[in-house]
Amino acid sequence: MKRPDFQAEIRELNLAYLMLAQQMLRGDRETALFRLGLSKDVADFIEGLSAAKLVRMASNQMLLPQFRFDDEQLARLMAGEGRDAASSSLHAAILAAGKAAEEAA
């Protein structure tokens, strides 16, 4: 059985992520830092990438974006499971913000 090669899809996703990250950082840096889960040093690096370096970095075989949740409860809340979708989303945001604060400390 032949295994699929996802290199083109990974490159495309990485490039979209890096371009979005640059746009977000240039628009509203503090919100972008929170939403992307980046440190200030990494944000500075990404924001300063030239187009050529952005494409080169995106061509890496590693997937650059990563999930910000590491437990099932947060994943379920983000998927809208719970009493109602609005409160689940709010609860997920509160949990994610708490995790970001814990990691920064």
UniProtKB/TrEMBL annotation:
One of its GO terms (biological process) is regulation of bacterial-type flagellum assembly. One of its GO terms (molecular function) is DNA binding. Its main location: cytoplasm. It is found in: Cytoplasm. InterPro entries: Flagellar_FlhD, FlhD_sf. Keywords: Activator, Bacterial flagellum biogenesis, Cell projection, Cilium, Cytoplasm, Disulfide bond, DNA-binding, Flagellum, Transcription, Transcription regulation. The keyword Disulfide bond applies. It comes from the Bacteria. Pfam families: FlhD (PF05247). The C-terminal region contains a putative helix-turn-helix (HTH) motif, suggesting that this region may bind DNA. Belongs to the FlhD family. Functions in complex with FlhC as a master transcriptional regulator that regulates transcription of several flagellar and non-flagellar operons by binding to their promoter region. Activates expression of class 2 flagellar genes, including fliA, which is a flagellum-specific sigma factor that turns on the class 3 genes. Also regulates genes whose products function in a variety of physiological pathways. Homodimer; disulfide-linked. Forms a heterohexamer composed of two FlhC and four FlhD subunits. Each FlhC binds a FlhD dimer, forming a heterotrimer, and a hexamer assembles by dimerization of two heterotrimers. This is Flagellar transcriptional regulator FlhD.
